[in-house]
Amino acid sequence: MSHHHAVNEPRGAVARQLHYRTLADKQTGAWAIYITHPGNQLGRAHEPLELADTHLPTVLFQVGRHPHRFRGACLGCDWESDRDDTNVLQAVEAAHDHTHTGWRTMPAVHPQPPAGRASTWAKQVTAAYPDGWFARGGPVLTIRPGPADRRPLPGRAPGGRGYDLPARPPHEHPPRPPPQHRRPPPSHSSEGWNGMPESSSPDAPRPAPRPRRSRARINHGQLMRDLDAIAAAHPGRTVAPVPARHRAALGHVERWQRSGSSR
Hints:
- This protein has six helices and six strands; from the N terminus they run H-H-E-E-E-H-E-H-E-E-H-H.
- It starts with a helix and ends with a helix.
- The chain has a three-stranded antiparallel sheet. The protein has a three-stranded parallel sheet with strand order 4-5-6, with no helix packed on it.
- The protein is of the alpha/beta class.
- Helix 4 (115-128) links the parallel strand 4 (108-109) and strand 5.
């Protein structure tokens, strides 16, 4: 914005908008009320405009500048935000800090449903907010379905005067810290979770391994001799009983009986 326009432009949303209407060249870098926001709604951009009887929020933007610069302003006085924002939501929130102190503490509700249930929604929301809040142009805070839907919606509060502003859902909380890896509790034995005694350090020598229980190995030579002795004592009879694990050796006895050999 040039110094010439900074000197000659008035302050305040209403004064700036009326001044902007008088300019022959609209793309001059002048400040005006942002389109669709209170004071410059579609279809009413040229209607008579005067100061409101109460403080009402709106947004100014610098015409012809890219990227846009936004500034919170008031329709009831000449207040303007002392900072320029690149995000329209930030400018709208700054305006509400001036016009409706405490708006950030209002309850968050679900967005307005389709037209068939809008009246019921408006009654329930009005009952949840302070008396006269929406009549004074106060905003409604709605829980939006996703982080991308953060647009301020002018005229969408019950009564059609205030904004619908996005609020953080009450069920959302900061992410929890990652869980700490804890050492498993010690067992009732003298050994720790890693097989080492509880009192030992990682550098201490490991205890001697427990001896393994070995299976008794079968002496097949002695087994054969025992079976031969039994068979000689009982000629013509099957040697029995024989443990199941020794049945493989019966083939020797049966072959000996069939051959009729005498030993």
